[in-house]
Design brief:
With 397 residues, the protein is mostly helical. It is 38% helix and 2% strand. The longest helix has 28 residues.
């Protein structure tokens, strides 16, 4: 049986979450707060925080230090419980709301720059269009929260729970999303340039259509190993969704970061001479063989997924050997030698494909040796072309 509403001088807003510390708000009613919320019994008045004030009234409250009043209200409550608070359009710059219970709160268009919301519970809160630039939301719970078109530039979202959160159109440039939980989140048309994304969790139900990933901070800072891990996470997400074009793009970015890590190592975090000198020496000590393998891996077949590059190498090899055969000469069955480029090109194509009609043969011992090398190169390039073509269309785990 639900308990009776509090006395007339107390807020009768009824909390909806099953883990509520009490059934009703019970705070003193505010002046001119006639309610208007479906959680209030008919005819009952609300406290300042559950009152559906208009923007003009809220601005007046801001002038009387709304931030300090809100912080005092939370500090007076042992559970820091303010579920369903109506703070639409409120100016709460720098407010300390850490560990507060603000489920179902309405923060639409609110100004929350530099606010402290660490470990706060904002499940199903409405933060549409709110400004949360430089706000601290580390380890906060924003499951099913609405943040469309919110500004989260340079916000701290480390280990923040954003399961099924609506972040469509949100601006998160420079935000720290390290190990954030983004499963089922809506990131449609969100802006994430220069965001930290190491360890962030995405799944196939996360909506990333039109997401502007930009360049993550890990890559911008030259932390190539971590940047590769970020690109692999994004590429794996797109592969799970069946968007192989985007998965291919982020696979190339991942491999490029691995390549840069082998060639250059991590970029020094500061410009001090000792660190720069150490970085240069580290580059010089890196094995030339490993650097050569990665260069071949990139420029020969585009990390194994660009068959057109292998095809270009095939054309180059055929043309180069054709020029060599033209120089040495091509002998026909009658023994007459030809220095025509067309005949040399035909011989090069036949040798490359290991077809060997026998009507045209290279003239001279050096040309015979070249023909053997071209036959081997043709077999290897054909195999590489087929491997890269197959790899491009095979699902990558």
């Amino acid at each position: 049986m639900p308990s009776q509403p509090p006395s007339l001088g107390k807020c009768a807003y009824r909390f909806r979450h099953p883990n509520r510390p009490r059934e009703y708000c019970g705070r003193p009613v505010g002046p001119n707060c006639q309610g208007g919320d479906e959680r209030l019994p008919t005819g009952r008045r609300a406290c300042l925080w559950h009152c559906r004030c208009d923007h003009a009234t809220r601005e007046k409250q801001t002038a009387t230090d709304l931030v300090r009043q809100l912080e005092r209200t939370l500090n007076e409550d042992e559970d820091r419980h303010l579920e369903g608070a109506y703070l639409r359009g409120a100016h709460l710059v720098g407010a300390d709301l850490s560990d507060a219970n603000l489920r179902y709160a309405d923060f639409q268009q609110a100004q929350l720059q530099h606010a402290k919301l660490g470990r706060a519970c904002l499940e199903r809160a409405d933060l549409g269009g709110a400004c949360l630039e430089y706000a601290d939301l580390s380890e906060a719970h924003l499951e099913d929260a609405a943040l469309p078109n919110a500004s989260l530039k340079h916000a701290i979202l480390n280990r923040t729970h954003l399961y099924a959160a609506a972040l469509n159109g949100a601006h998160m440039e420079g935000a720290n999303l390290t190990y954030a939980y983004l499963e089922h989140a809506n990131l449609q048309c969100a802006h994430l340039n220069r965001a930290r994304l190491l360890g962030a969790g995405l799944d196939r139900r996360s909506n990333s259509e039109g997401t502007d990933w930009g360049v993550p901070t890990e890559e911008h800072d030259g932390d190539w190993a971590h940047a590769a891990a970020v690109y692999r996470m994004i590429g794996h997400h797109y592969a799970e969704k069946g968007n192989h074009e985007e998965a291919h793009k982020f696979y190339l970015r991942e491999m490029t970061c691995h390549h840069r890590d082998i060639l250059t190592g991590a970029r020094p975090s500061s410009g001090s001479w000792d660190k720069v000198k150490g970085w240069v020496c580290d580059r010089l000590r890196r094995p030339l063989f490993a650097r050569g393998v990665w260069c071949l891996h990139k420029y020969f077949w585009g990390y194994g997924v660009m068959p057109w590059r292998v095809f270009c190498w095939m054309v180059v090899v055929v043309a180069a050997f054709a020029i060599a055969f033209k120089y040495w000469g091509v002998a026909c069955g009658s023994g007459a030698a030809s220095h025509c480029f067309q005949d040399a090109l035909a011989l090069s194509l036949i040798t490359f494909s290991t077809l060997g009609y026998g009507d045209w043969v290279p003239k001279g011992d050096p040309a015979h040796l070249l023909a053997g090398f071209e036959a081997v190169a043709g077999a290897l390039l054909a195999a590489a072309f087929l491997v890269s073509l197959a790899t491009k269309y095979v699902h990558r785990d």
